[in-house]
Structure formats: C-alpha cells, structure tokens
Write a structure and sequence with these properties.
Elements: E1 17-18, E2 21-22, H1 26-46, H2 51-59, E3 63-66, H3 68-82, H4 89-103, H5 113-136, H6 145-150, H7 159-189, H8 198-208, E4 215-217, E5 223-225, E6 228-230, E7 236-238, H9 240-243, H10 264-267, H11 285-301, E8 304-309, E9 315-316, E10 320-321, E11 325-330
Antiparallel strand pairs: 1-2, 3-11, 4-7, 5-6, 8-11, 9-10
Helix pairs in contact: 2-11, 3-7, 4-5, 5-7, 7-8, 7-11, 8-11
C-alpha cells in the first residue's frame, strides 16, 4: 500500500499536507526534499569533531526533564539549517515560541484555544512575510530551509501555504528527531545496561516506539486488499507500531533487544518502516538516525548518566513521545 506501485492510493504525505490540500506538483516536492537533504548533510559534515560535544556540554544541565530537553537540543543544534544565522532575531524568537508551545509533548493541550489561534495567526503572517522577502531576494545556493521552501515552486504559490510546509520541517527537526533521541535515552536508562553500539539502541527505539506511529492513505478506486473490500471513501491506515511488533517478522517483538541489530538481516527486514516506505519515505532518515546516534553517544560520554522514569506510558498524539523522565548527569567531563 505504501509503495503504491499500481496507483491504487492517492499520493499523500502528511509532510506536504496544508490547509489548501496537498502541496503539489510532485516536482516541487522532490526539489525541496533533495535540496533540504543536501543542506542538512553539508551542515553535519562541516561540524568540527568536538563541536557536538561542546554544544551538549553547554546546553545539558546536570538535571534535565525529558522528552522536552531532547526537542530543545535537536532544535537548537539544527537551527542554522532552518534559519541562517543572519536572519532576523525576531524570526528566530518566533521559532523558539512555536517549539515551546506547539512541538513539545502535550504543549498544545496545555494552551487555551485562543492562545493557539493567536500563535497560528502570528506564525502564518510572519512566516509568509519572510518567505516573500526570500522570493524578492533569491540566494544561490540557498542559505537555509526557508530559502529552499520559498523557491520550491512558481511565483503563483501562496506564501501562507509555503509557510505551512516550512513548519513541517520545523516539526520534523525539533519534534520527530528530538523524540527519537528521548526514546533512545529512555530505553537505555530503563533497561539493564548493555554494552552495545548506540546505533543499535537507536534502531531498537525506532522499532519499538516509532514516532510516526500511523500512516493513512485513501484509495483512488474500489479494490480488494488482503481479502478486504475497499471503497474510494475509505481510509486505510498502516500502523508502524504494530508492524514492527509483528511476531511473524521479529523474535520477542515486545522486548528491548538492541543486540538483534547485530544481524545484518534485521537491517533489511521489510517490517521496519519508522520513516514510512515508498515514494514518501523520509528523505533524511539516514542523516537523522546518524545524528541521534552521535548525540546519544556524546551524552553518555559526558559523565555518569542516570534516568528516572515518571511512568511507563507514552504520550500519544500525532507523534508518539516517551513518558516523562529525569536525566541526571554527574562527573561531567
């Protein structure tokens, strides 16, 4: 269904869904994805070996509350990719506010409706203006993702629609990547210590608790799927959470076993879709997991890390966040 080789399902990606419908054409999506991946890759490759360590040593307090800290860390580290350093300070403060009030686990539920509406209005207005400024002053190559989004389509594209696509990048960087980092630390800290590579821990966190836990598609025509008759009015949902805990594809599927990733076959398992599958699979999946692995390794090397969980139930919304937990860091290096 996600591969959609025969076109039985409408092309769909939550990433490119806006209030005006589905952001098209496909060529604009591909251009945006390609340029954003290149920008992120170049940013990560240009970091000095000790830069991430210095950043985390400065940003991570001796006692920190998660998963919020994970969202803030990934956002602050990758902020230059979203907005070039010479952008307006007021625009950077706007993104800070969006993260605090819309991205953090349960952030929206903690805000009264009028405040959410005011932030939405302010965000649309100011981002639309910023995109208009970018379009009037094109930069080659693009300085940041704001540039990439602004020049992804023709001049007739609505600026408020482009602002929503830019927000998808913000939510992916500060929300999705931050939650994966938090899940990795939570699982590491709430299970017996394992001397395993951090990459295996990240993969197992993605398998057990995929942040994007449901992927919906609509049929373009009536057809049958695995013996079930579907109509064009139906919605079909793939749940990576269930797929990745399927005993037909994984041994002890409910158990945290990062050592399972020592087997090369695990990396080729088709029942592993935390980033989707097919044409709309996350284009920067490998870069995101590499960054999370680097951040996890660096945090664990900063000193003696302790994790105290405040429950065992995830926070489930559009993204699935880990239970709240406290991280303590002693004997900092």
């Amino acid at each position: 269904m996600l591969g959609n080789a025969d076109g039985s399902y409408a092309e769909h990606s939550d990433f490119f869904h806006t209030r005006y419908g589905y952001f098209e054409p496909r060529s604009a999506q591909l251009k945006m994805r390609r340029e954003a991946r290149s920008l992120l890759r170049d940013f990560l490759q240009a970091r000095a070996p000790d830069e991430l360590r210095d950043f985390l040593r400065e940003q991570l307090a001796p006692v920190s509350q998660w998963p919020d800290t994970g969202n803030r860390l990934t956002y602050r580290y990758l902020l230059p990719v979203l907005l070039a350093p010479d952008r307006s300070p007021s625009l950077r403060r706007l993104l800070d506010e969006i993260v605090e009030r819309s991205v953090l686990a349960n952030a929206r539920a903690r805000q009264p409706r009028w405040r959410r509406m005011l932030l939405q209005f302010n965000t649309t207005l100011r981002l639309s203006r910023a995109i208009g400024d970018c379009q009037r002053d094109p930069r080659t190559p693009p300085r940041d993702i704001l540039d990439i989004v602004a020049h992804s389509a023709g001049p007739d594209r609505r600026q408020d629609e482009l602002s929503e696509v830019f927000l998808s990048f913000l939510f992916a960087i500060s929300g999705s990547v931050g939650f994966v980092l938090a899940w990795s630390l939570y699982l590491w800290g709430t299970h017996p210590r394992r001397d395993t590579p951090v990459e295996w821990i990240v993969q197992e966190a993605l398998r057990l608790w995929p942040v994007a836990w449901q992927l919906g598609r609509r049929p373009t025509q009536a057809h049958e799927l695995s013996g079930v008759k579907l109509e064009a009015s139906d919605e079909v949902v793939v749940c990576p959470y269930m797929v990745q805990r399927n005993a037909a594809h994984w041994s002890d599927p409910a158990q945290f076993q990062p050592e399972r990733w020592a087997d090369p076959r695990a990396w080729r398992n088709p029942a592993f879709i935390p980033f989707g599958h097919g044409a709309h699979r996350c284009v920067a999946a490998d870069l995101a997991t590499q960054l999370v692995g680097d951040m996890l390794r660096t945090v664990l090397e900063l000193g003696e890390v302790g994790i105290v969980a405040q429950g065992d139930r995830p926070t489930v919304a559009a993204a699935m966040a880990p239970p709240p937990f406290t991280l303590t860091l002693r004997n900092r290096a």
